[in-house]
Recover the amino acids of this structure.
């Protein structure tokens, strides 16, 4: 056999080997967490709350807190992010403004979350007097996810076909009616993808929420506006950290890890489904 | 729609844009400005090159971040040294060598792991890797720079693979055809034509990976031991991120300690911005289109 | 017979950034006639057409100088309501550019935009426009189906219907048949014959035979200038300018 073909074969073997090693590594990580966590999971664990007197463990409060933080941060970041993206791509004439925004968004999307944790704690919790609450945590996260939502929305707006614009403007449509009836509907999938990415970051975030949203594992009261604003507590990833690092309760930590893996997988398949729709249109 | 309606819509959108841009610029300004006063107070040299970080000492606190800075740099460099070759080979596998079905499976797995919360990685590192290192290397404690490097390497693999694959997939088929037409084998073409042609994109993937490694706090906090030693591979270390994560809750508002932590934040910010800017600079200098 | 002039260019210059695309254009467009703009690619005929409804505004750095009037009012006047102008001067593009909606919603898009909400009024406008564009028979029983499922020729006639639904005075056609097969092209040419009594039509075309068949006036563009203009029959049978003659000879062979 030709030495060049041997080299070719060896190089291909190397590629397969690397991919195999990476897959094995990642599979082992997820598999191990699931293997340790699954036996700890039970309906009572998912739907109960922790009680030291009653000797029960449960993560329902953290599940609820996670959902609340996702909902509130998206409710803030979505209108601002999408509105800003529409203005920057469709209206803005000032190039400095547009490029400044793109530059800042690019820089801030790479900034470590621990820095947002400090900002959130200093600005929202202290300066604005929100204390450590789910609200303060959500607001900090909405700032953290703003660059993501802004960029994905801008990309999908730019991808809207020129023919829609020409067609609508040629009929005497004003700019905003054109955007509302054609450009935004055509960009919906991209916007949804941005939201899913943002939700994924919220689910995975710990550092920010530790310092801005609190560590309580007790069920919060969302029955009135006032008590909801004061609600403070751990989301799932914060709870995992508390179980693992502060209480050394690895059983509970792995159970939470398993729940987080499922949540991540769900968010991923949602994003993939939206992605498929984008490609089909 | 009336022209008044058009103007109202434009005004609302403009306010959104203004809020977003102001927020983004304010944040950037905040990162830059909040970190400077403490550095000035402590002194640039003492801050960046001081070898002792002992902020809790009330009488004579010392704010030298060199051990933290070096630990962060070693940690990120070590993680990149492990993850980048493996990640690039895997990306090349996915973009070119893999059969369709296999590629789809591996891609799914990588995507899933890209989204896994960092605390999950930290947890597995803490319960598996750290005890293993302790037994295997016969250390007093397994919490170490090595553990941090390994956990970070696993964590930055998925984004490096994903970004590098995108860059490789975007290489025009014509380049490869030209190479095949000259009698090159597949792997010769992939390594000598495809990989260099994807240059700036691959570099961006590497830079992003390093940036992530520099910025990760929680997972490292769970495995690094967090003592502010000058870093050694098998010893306990504290990184820039974990330094902030550990102490920020204890630093009194407005104290020099808190402001010094904000200064660490500035150093981190600058490091990450430099990492992000690297691919752009390289593209400009390298004369590639 | 005296003609009413509806659109009129007097010394119109047009620039894309530093590049001049039109030089001192003098051209009158008569009302309720078909005017054809002919010339080689890049000669400025499409640019001129897109000045008439300010579609060129979409291109950054584009600007016009000189005079271009619609009913005697400057089209490029500062503060002019461009949307209102475009409502009166409709356009059909080179490629059919229907929206991703049903056939009905495509035609109703314009009227809805301009405030018509009543179901019966919309139904009536949609039917009238589709009939005027000679496509009613083909789509009457599938108005709720996606418009993008139609054939290219049908799509282009639907675009014409959509343009007619806002009741414009002028219809600009930018090589509207160049992407179509000969049969669909023939249908649209026939359609133009029925529309010219009610609308002013300005069409840009590469197809000299089409210009000769459907238009009553023709203007020949070359390098951003109008070289010759006049009644179509005269211009095609005895061009006065040598460049026109050369072009027509080359095209018609």
């Amino acid at each position: 056999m030709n030495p060049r073909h041997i080299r070719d074969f060896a190089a291909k073997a190397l590629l397969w080997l690397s991919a195999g090693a990476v897959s094995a590594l990642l599979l082992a990580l997820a598999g191990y967490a699931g293997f340790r966590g699954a036996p700890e999971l039970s309906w009572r664990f998912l739907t109960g709350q922790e009680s030291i007197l009653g000797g029960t463990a449960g993560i329902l409060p953290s599940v609820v807190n996670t959902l609340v933080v996702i909902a509130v941060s998206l409710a803030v970041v979505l209108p601002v992010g999408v509105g800003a993206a529409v203005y920057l791509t469709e209206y803005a004439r000032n190039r400095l403004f547009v490029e400044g925004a793109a530059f800042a968004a690019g820089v801030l999307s790479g900034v470590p979350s621990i820095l947002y944790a400090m900002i959130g704690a200093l600005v929202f919790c202290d300066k604005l007097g929100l204390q450590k609450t789910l609200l303060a945590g959500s607001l900090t996260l909405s700032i953290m996810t703003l660059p993501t939502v802004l960029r994905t929305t801008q990309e999908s707006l730019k991808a809207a076909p020129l023919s829609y614009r020409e067609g609508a403007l040629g009929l005497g449509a004003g700019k905003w009616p054109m955007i509302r009836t054609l450009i935004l509907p055509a960009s919906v999938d991209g916007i949804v993808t941005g939201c899913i990415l943002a939700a994924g970051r919220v689910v995975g975030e710990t550092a920010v929420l530790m310092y801005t949203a609190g560590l309580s594992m007790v069920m919060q009261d969302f029955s009135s506006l006032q008590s909801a604003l004061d609600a403070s507590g751990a989301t799932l990833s914060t709870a995992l950290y508390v179980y693992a690092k502060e209480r050394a309760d690895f059983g509970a930590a792995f159970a939470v890890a398993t729940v987080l893996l499922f949540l991540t997988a769900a968010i991923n398949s949602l994003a993939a489904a939206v992605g498929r729709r984008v490609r089909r249109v | 729609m009336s022209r008044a309606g058009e103007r109202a819509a434009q005004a609302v959108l403009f306010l959104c844009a203004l809020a977003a841009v102001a927020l983004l610029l304010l944040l950037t300004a905040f990162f830059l400005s909040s970190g400077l006063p403490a550095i000035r107070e402590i002194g640039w040299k003492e801050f960046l090159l001081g070898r002792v970080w002992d902020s809790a000492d009330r009488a004579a606190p010392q704010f030298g971040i060199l051990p933290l800075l070096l630990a962060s740099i070693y940690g990120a460099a070590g993680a990149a040294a492990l993850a980048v070759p493996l990640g690039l080979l895997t990306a090349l596998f996915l973009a070119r060598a893999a059969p369709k079905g296999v590629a789809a499976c591996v891609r799914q797995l990588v995507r899933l792991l890209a989204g896994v919360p960092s605390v999950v990685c930290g947890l597995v590192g803490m319960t598996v890797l750290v005890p293993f290192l302790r037994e295997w290397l016969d250390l007093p404690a397994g919490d170490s720079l090595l553990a941090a490097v390994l956990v970070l390497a696993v964590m930055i693999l998925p984004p490096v693979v994903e970004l590098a694959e995108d860059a490789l997939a975007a290489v025009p088929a014509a380049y490869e055809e030209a190479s095949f037409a000259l009698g090159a084998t597949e792997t010769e073409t992939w390594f000598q034509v495809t990989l260099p042609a994807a240059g700036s994109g691959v570099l961006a993937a590497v830079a992003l990976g390093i940036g992530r490694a520099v910025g990760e706090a929680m997972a490292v906090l769970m495995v690094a031991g967090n003592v502010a030693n000058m870093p050694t591979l098998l010893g306990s270390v504290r990184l820039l991120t974990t330094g902030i994560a550990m102490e920020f809750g204890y630093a009194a508002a407005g104290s020099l300690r808190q402001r010094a932590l904000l200064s660490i934040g500035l150093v981190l910010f600058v490091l990450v911005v430099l990492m992000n800017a690297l691919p752009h600079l390289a593209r400009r200098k390298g004369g590639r289109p | 017979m005296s003609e009413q002039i509806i659109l009129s260019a007097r010394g119109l210059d047009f620039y894309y950034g530093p590049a001049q695309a039109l030089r001192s254009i003098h051209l009158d467009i008569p009302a309720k006639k078909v005017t054809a703009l002919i010339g080689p690619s890049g000669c400025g005929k499409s640019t001129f057409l897109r000045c008439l409804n300010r579609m060129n505004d979409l291109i950054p750095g584009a600007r016009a100088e000189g005079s271009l009037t619609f009913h005697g009012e400057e089209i490029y006047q500062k503060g002019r309501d461009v949307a209102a102008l475009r409502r009166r001067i409709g356009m059909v593009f080179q490629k059919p550019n229907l929206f991703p909606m049903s056939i009905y919603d495509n035609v109703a898009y314009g009227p809805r935009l301009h405030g018509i909400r009543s179901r019966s009024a919309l139904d009536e406008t949609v039917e009238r426009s589709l009939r005027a564009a000679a496509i009613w028979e083909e789509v009457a029983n599938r108005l709720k189906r996606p418009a993008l499922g139609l054939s290219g020729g049908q799509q282009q006639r639907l675009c014409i219907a959509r343009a007619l639904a806002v009741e414009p005075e002028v219809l600009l056609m930018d090589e509207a048949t160049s992407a179509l097969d000969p049969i669909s092209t023939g249908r649209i040419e026939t359609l133009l014959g029925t529309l010219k009594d009610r609308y002013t039509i300005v069409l840009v075309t590469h197809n000299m035979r089409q210009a000769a068949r459907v238009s009553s006036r023709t203007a020949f563009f070359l390098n951003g200038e109008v070289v010759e203009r006049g009644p179509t029959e005269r211009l095609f049978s005895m061009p006065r300018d040598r460049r026109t003659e050369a072009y027509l000879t080359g095209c018609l062979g």
